[in-house]
Amino acid sequence: MNDDVRNIVLGLVAAGISAALGWIARTYLWNRKLRRKQAFFGLPENAESLLVVNRDPATAEPAVHRFDVFALLELSALIKDCGAHIQVVTQDAAHQGFGERTEFCVGGPGSNRRMVAHMAAMLPGVRVNVDPEPGPDRGAFRIGADLYRMEPGVTEYVLLARLTAGERRETRPVFLFCGQRAITNQAATRYLARNHERLARKYGSGSFVLLLKVVNSQAYGPDVVELVADVTKPAQSPLPAPETAETPPKALKGPKKSHRAD
């Protein structure tokens, strides 16, 4: 074997080794990224998950708003990426506890009974105005001492939460997407899909409650979303008791004097 042939063979061997090492490195990084994603969502391979569907409160018939359908599709893609399975149930048919399976619950308390139960159990510091009558506080969020009103199509809010019950390692999380309008629910699911890696680095497997603002949805749809604040602490703390004005003590009245003329 002359020098030229030997150099060619050595070059091919080196290229093969480099390609194999590159493939192994990419596979390792991809698997590590997938494991982190599965851990954050509580969805190991072949795990079961629950997708709770709300109803459209604007219709008398059982129906789902189209923006909520888009939100469910985005969540389904996330679940499938983790290699998990999905069970879809309606908000009035989810009669089971939480923590055994990862749950994704979509819709505010006005359209989702399951959301009402979760908020009462795990978010005592949050109140949502579900009054159907028009008014400035319709759909408003009260979180602790702060009030967040919506301006439909211009400024709207949504809560994105990852909550766990108990300290058991195998406890599965509940993800809540509680928006003032259906389009904000989709905005929250899209925000989660885009930012789950950053959220996993920051919060790990712990709980969090984020208040998001959807900006100018009438022009930009669910795409322009801003993080307003991490409201985990006030959302999980009981609401402060309303202040009552102190009434001054009544003046003691003496016996009536007689003004009888002599």
Automatic annotation (TrEMBL):
Residue intervals passing through the bilayer: 6-29
Key words, A-Z: Membrane, Transmembrane, Transmembrane helix
Residue spans of biased composition, Basic residues class: 253-262
Residue segments, region Disordered: 234-262
Biased composition (Low complexity): 242-252
The organism's place on the tree of life at top rank: Bacteria
Name of this protein: Secreted protein
